[in-house]
Each structure stands twice: as C-alpha cells, then as structure tokens.
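Thread: quick sanity check before group meeting

JM: Hey all, I'm pulling together slides for Thursday and realized we never actually wrote out the predicted structure for the chain we discussed last week. Dropping the sequence here so it's in one place. If anyone has concerns about the input, flag it before I start.
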Amino acid sequence: MAIAKKIEGFMEKASWIRKMFEEGMALKRQHGADNVFDFSLGNPNLDPPAEFFDALQKVVDEKAPGAHAYMSNAGYPETRAAVAEFVSGEQGVDLTAENVIMTCGAGGGLNVVFKTLLDPDDEVLVPSPFFVEYRFYVDNHGGVCKLVDTREDFSLDLAAIEQAISEKTKIVLINSPNNPTGAVYGAQEIAQLGELLKQKSSELGKTIYLMSDEPYRKIVYDGLTLPSILAVYDHSLVVTSYSKDLSLPGERLGFIVVNPAIESLDTTMNGLVFSNRTLGFVNAPALMQRVTTRLQGASINATIYQHKRDLLCGMLGDLGYEFVKPAGAFYLFPKSPVDDVEFVRELQGERILVVPGSGFGRANHFRIAYCVADETIERSRDGFARVAERHFQRP
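JM (edit): ok, ran it. Output follows.
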C-alpha cells in the first residue's frame, strides 16, 4: 500500500464531489460541454468586480521594493488594519489590526485555528449538513468532528447542540450562509447559541469556543443581514475568505478575526501566528493582501445569484421537487425521493451533475450548486422533468 490507510479511507469518504467532477469531464468529452449540466462544484461563475482589476493593476504597477519578500506571519499591518476597520462595522465590535491574521483562504484559516486550540481527542461540534472538508480539517489536528443534526428547515437545533456538549467539547463550528443548504442562521438563534455556550462553559468549568465560517457572508438574499457572533459571545472567532464575495477562489486569501474579549487574547493570537507559520502557510499571499487592502466592502453583485436561485427554485418547484428555499450562498439542497446516490445516478443519466446529500451528512437529499450560467439552469429542465415524472405524483 503506497499511501496511509487512513488517507485512503478519507479519500473514499470525500470522493463524491471529485467523482462527479471527473465523470462530468468524461460526459463533456462525449456529448460536448454545452450538453452537460454541471451543478457539482461551488466554483463562482461571476468575474471579480471591476474595482478588483483596477486595484490589481495599481499594485502591480507600484513595483515597491520588498513587495514580494517575507512579512510578519500575521500579514501586512496595513491590510490587517483595513480588515479590522471594515469588520468592526460589520460585526459591531471594536477591532484592531492585532485581532486579525491574514490566511491562505478560509480553509487555511480553519486549519490554523484547529492547530492552535485543539488537544488530542477534543471535540468540534458541527451542525449537519456540513461542508465535507470540516471532518478532515479537524482530524488534521487530532480532534474529533462530532455532528449534530439541524432541524428539517436546516435551522440550528439548540436542544440537540446542548445534549451533544460534553467535557470533551472545545469548539462549536457554524457555517452561515451554509454549504450545502444555503441556510442563514438568524439573530435570535445566534443569540440563544451564545447564551447556551456561556451556560455550558460555566457548568463545565472550561471555555467552549464558538467559530463561524463565513465565506458566503455577503451572498444573502431578500434583504437579509447576518448577525454577529462576536457581539453575542466573548470566546468567538470568525474565519472567512475572499473566494466567494470577490470571486477569487484560486487566489487563496482569507483571514481570522479573534474577539478582543476572548480568553487569553495575547496567547491565543501568538498561537495562531505560530500555527500559521509552522503549518507551512508561512503567510498569506503578498500580492492579494495589497490588493484587498484597497477593496474592503467590495463584492460581486449578489442579486445575480438571487436571480439564479429564483430561476432554479421556480423550475424545480413546478416539477414537484421538495426543498427549503435557500436564503444565501449559491446552493440548493432538495429532498431525494429515493436513495440519494441512486437518484443522483438517474440525474447523471440525463447529463445533470449534482452531489449526493449523504456526502454532506444528510442522506436522501442532493446538492445543486447554481453558480452557473442561466442557460445551464434553463436547459436542464427537460432532464429534471423526466426524472421527476418517474418519482413524483403530480396533482
């Protein structure tokens, strides 16, 4: 065996998205890319906003001495200060550059936090359905990912979270807007979660951390705004990236924000900086830091994704599919009338590529990533209809 058995097992568990991508490539070679309706990957299909290209050109033209040299492992002071100023307004908490660490995307940021906070066998509670990589990120650092079901509408089940908390609980990790459901957690449930963690931390005589993974924060619909976890719970951290709101997933830039009221702030920040370096990230990409310093608050136009959501939901609703309409991100998570793997295979027979919900911790559902051209949604209708006719009774 050339690779570790553990990694081999993990690869099998994580294979669905990659498997659908690879099978989709084969279908595209066979039928032509325009005749395959690929909803498998959450890869933004919008270009970055115009101001990104303006800022990028200016930064490239500056040719400043040392612009591509090592820096503080936490990132450029001016970038961290710009992030702190913007996020202070967004989260309703006064932050400084000393509360911010620039990271290699949100994935890098999550790994840095887990490396810093987790001791062996510490538990990270994750509401399910969940982003599939969380399980592996937690395991990277000796922790245990403990899944807690959400309600039928994918809102937080606070009673289930309370029951799942134990002396081994170190972190509760939430993701809103959520991948794969598009659910957005409201202000009341976030406030109640904060109160619950205060109560349980006191009862157990230990600190339970609350971490929010927020790469879709600016992609919300129908006038919604996201509540702040920093404002409701002292021992909290936010991890995010520019991958979705600036359509820059390939540039790998994000940041960690640490609540200034967190326990042992200086030690925590020093640990995060140390982990950022020793995990091999060293520092976040220099060029992108200098570019995004100028782009705080900039974002793609989320109403474009809202239009795609409405187009897809209207189409599938008419065909009899059952789902909770997403309030953010660019994913729909409908119910499957039969085994989700079997149903996904049926859709694949219609050259429609989606991902089984069991890969995200909720069987009998499937994920549709609608960050695609409107034409892809519209032209997939006949295939979705043929599969629906075999399973749904129409009135």
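AS: nice. The radius of gyration is 21 Å. Residues 179 and 315 are 21 Å apart (CA to CA).
JM: adding both to the slides.
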